[in-house]
Amino acid sequence: MTVAVYLPVKEKIQWWVEMLQGLLPGWTIASIDDIEDVASVKQAVVWRPRPGDLARFPNLEVIVSIGAGIDHVLADPDLPKDVPIIRTAGDDLTQRMREYVALHVLRHHRDMPRQLLAQAEKDWHAIVVPVAPNRIVGVMGLGNLGAASAKTLSDLGFITRGWSKSTKTIEGVETFAGADALDRFLSGCEILVNLLPLTDATKGILNADLFGKLAPGACVINCARGGHLVDDDLLLALEARQIKQATLDVFHQEPLPTDHAFWSHPAITVTPHVASQIDAATGGRLIASNLKEFVETGTCPDMADADRGY
Ligand SMILES: NC(=O)c1ccc[n+]([C@@H]2O[C@H](COP(=O)([O-])OP(=O)(O)OC[C@H]3O[C@@H](n4cnc5c(N)ncnc54)[C@H](OP(=O)(O)O)[C@@H]3O)[C@@H](O)[C@H]2O)c1
């Protein structure tokens, strides 16, 4: 029984192979490209597998995504059907995302980009903003990351809204469920955080139509997937001052091409998909524990649902 490992950065593969080997003594862990006996592979641990990578293994029983989303696995047109997928969640990932969301919501709330500009001009320019209890923030997606982030924003004092597919109850958060409730969720929202999974239903959801439903001059934070955002719609909304500022952690193409307009836009903060990058050692322990449990029982707490896309 062999566990096949793949990540796009070649130098990282061997590190992951050795780390998982240490955590799973007695198992055989190997880089996907070194495996000749394809029939021996029953598990695969992957980040952004290449199309066709997983179809090589006729006896594959489970795929583990090194990350919370599974869109990068489902993107493979040759993905073997009906092989269960485990995602990698956990407290480490949630804590990191809460920190990122709090940091960037507060930056926009206090207009730090404008304040830093004033400093650069040696301009003693006091920016007075409403207090958090007079500011409406909204979180799209109330899963592990969205629910915890919404709770953090509520604890900071913001009027906090959350939007998900099914109804949720989160202390201090006004929740909205389903497509019919989206407009009410967006109306008056001054800072919007996207933490949806990328699915057919959510692709391109951050578009001109949605921007037009936010409060005029709202800020947008996308820390989910680049495919959620229609890039040109954001640029136009910023030009029209309909959107004041944006923080983007994820992009259609990563790394973000050096000639992309986002890099040098004065109202956009770019971070390189670091909102919540799991610490590899912590991630490895979670993956090993999930794999052991799956092999013993046929399930584990972090099972994803390929049919719904997350
Ligand atoms: N930038 C980074 O570093 C980073 C790190 C980790 C993850 N991420 C991204 O963050 C995403 C969210 O992660 P998570 O672990 O919080 O996901 P999750 O636990 O799977 O939760 C997804 C949430 O989105 C909601 N949702 C899904 N489709 C929807 C729709 N069509 N309309 C309304 N709500 C919908 C779900 O509603 P229900 O609860 O009702 O099903 C759920 O609340 C991941 O998929 C990944 O893309 C980014």
Describe, in plain words, how this protein is organized in 3D.
The protein is α/β, with parallel strands linked by helices. Helices cover 30% and strands 18% of the residues. It has 9 helices and 12 strands. It has helices at residues 10-23, 71-74, 91-109, 112-120, 144-155, 182-186, 208-211, 231-239, 280-297; strands at 2-6, 28-31, 41-46, 62-65, 85-86, 136-140, 159-164, 173-177, 191-194, 218-222, 243-248, 268-270. The strands form 2 sheets. Strands 8-7-6-9-10-11-12 form a 7-stranded parallel β-sheet. Helix 1 packs across helix 9 and helix 3 (91-109) crosses helix 5 (144-155). The longest helix has 19 residues, at 91-109. The model has no long low-confidence stretch (mean pLDDT 97). The structure holds NADP nicotinamide-adenine-dinucleotide phosphate. NADP nicotinamide-adenine-dinucleotide phosphate is lined by residues 67-69, 89, 93, 141-146, 163-166, 195-199, 201-202, 223-225, 249-250, 273, 275-277, 310.
CATH superfamily of the largest domain: NAD(P)-binding Rossmann-like Domain
Strand adjacency order, main sheet? 8-7-6-9-10-11-12
CATH architecture title of the largest domain: 3-Layer(aba) Sandwich
Percent helix range: 25-40%
Per DSSP, the total helix count is: 9
CATH class of the largest domain: Alpha Beta
Low-confidence stretches: none
Structural class: alpha/beta
Instruction: Outline the biggest β-sheet.
Output: 7 strands, parallel
Total strands: 12
| Rg (C-alpha, Å) | 21 Å
Number of domains: 2
Query: Could you say which overall geometry the principal axes of the C-alpha atoms support?
Result: elongated
Q: What is the average per-residue confidence, as pLDDT, rounded to a whole number?
A: 97
- What small molecules does the structure contain? NADP nicotinamide-adenine-dinucleotide phosphate
The H/E string reads EHEEEHEHHEHEEHEHEHEEH
Q: Give the amount of beta strand, in percent.
A: 15-25%
* Euclidean distance between termini CA atoms: 27 Å
CATH topology-level fold name of the largest domain: Rossmann fold
